[in-house]
Predict the structure.
Amino acid sequence: MDLRNAGVTNTQVLSAIERIPREEFVEDSFLDQAYANQALPIACGQTISQPLVVGLMTQALELHDRHKVLEVGTGSGYQAAVLSRFSRRVYTIERHQDLLEEAERRFESLRLRNITTLYGDGYKGWAAQAPFDRILVTAAARIVPRELVEQLSENGGVMILPVGDLAGADQEVLRVRKEGKNFTTERLFPVRFVPLVQGMPGGQRN
Ligand code: SAH
C-alpha cells in the first residue's frame, strides 16, 4: 500500500514485489527491517535498494514479458529477482565476486531460472548479449555511459539509470529512449545510489 500511495501504480510491478521475499536478500542482522521501505547495507560496502525505488525504476522501464533485460549492479540480487518475474530473460552484472555468488545462490534457491549472471565491469555492458530491449543501472554514473546506450535496442529501447554526483548528494534517475541511432533523455526523480565504479576491484580489468 505504501508503494502504491507513493506512485507505483503498475499492478504487475506491485505483484512482482509482493512475490519476491525480500528477507532472502538482506543480511541476517537486518532481518527485522526486511520489509521496511528503506535501503539496507549488504556486503562489500554496498546497499540493497529501497523497495519504493525498485518499484519506481521497474515501472519506469515499461517492461514487456518478451523483453531481454540487462541490469548493471546485481548487489543482493533483489532487483534482478523482481525483473525476472515479468521479463523473458534478465542478464545481470556485478563487479564484486562475493556479492555475485551470494545472489546466484538466492536465484537458485528461489528457482529463478531466467537470470544469467556475469562477474565483470558493467560500465561496459555485455556486448556478447546486446542488444537489450531494456537496461536498468542500479548504481550512479557521472554521465550516461556510451557503451550502454550503444547496447540498447534501436527499436524503442529504454534505459533507466541514476546519474549525478557520486557522493550521493545530487543524483536523479534518467530515462533514455532510443530509436534508430538517436536517443532522448528525460529526468524522472531524485535518488541516492552507491557509485557505478569503472574497472574491477584491485585494478584488474575484465
Ligand atoms: N540492484 C541491487 C542494488 C545494488 S547496489 C540490489 O537489488 O540489491 C549497486 C551495485 O552495483 C553494488 O553491488 C556494486 O558493487 C555494483 N557496481 C558498481 N559499479 C559496478 C560496475 N561497474 N559493474 C558492475 N557492478 C557494479
The CA atoms of residues 12 and 86 lie 8 Å apart. The first strand starts at residue 40 and ends at 41.
